[in-house]
Write a structure and sequence with these properties.
This protein has three helices and two strands, in the order E-E-H-H-H. The protein is mainly alpha-helical. 18% of the residues are buried. The structure holds zinc ion (ZN).
C-alpha cells in the first residue's frame, strides 16, 4: 500500500496519479524495485531442474520471498515425485524378482 505524497490518500502501489488530488506519484518510486511476482513459472523450473530451484531459493530468500517460496515448492514437489518414482521403481523391480524366483 502506498500513500499520496501530497494529500496522504491511500492509493494503489501501481497508481501513477492520486485519484483524489491528481498529483503524479511515480517520483517516489525510485528505490530499488524488485519484481517479486511469485510466478508459478519458477515452481515449474524448479520442478524440472531441482538444483536450479535450490539456487533460486537461496539467491532470492531475502530479496524475492514470493519467488523464493515458489522455487522452494517446485524443488520439494520435484524431490517428492522423484523419491516416489524411485521407490515405485524398486518395488516394481522387487516384484519382478519375486515373480521370476531370483
Ligand atoms: Zn493525493
Amino acid at each position: 500500500m502506498a500513500y499520496c505524497r501530497k494529500c496522504g490518500e491511500i492509493i494503489d502501489d501501481e497508481a501513477v496519479f492520486c485519484p483524489k488530488c491528481g498529483v503524479q506519484q511515480n517520483m517516489v518510486r525510485t528505490e530499488r524495485e524488485v519484481n517479486d511476482d511469485g510466478s508459478v513459472l519458477w515452481a515449474i523450473i524448479a520442478f524440472l531442474i531441482p538444483v536450479v530451484g535450490i539456487i533460486l531459493w537461496a539467491a532470492w530468500h531475502d530479496e524475492k520471498p514470493k519467488c523464493s517460496k515458489m522455487a522452494a515448492y517446485g524443488t520439494i514437489i520435484s524431490l517428492v515425485v522423484g523419491a516416489v518414482a524411485f521407490i515405485v521403481t524398486f518395488v516394481w523391480l522387487g516384484s519382478f524378482h519375486i515373480h521370476y524366483g531370483y
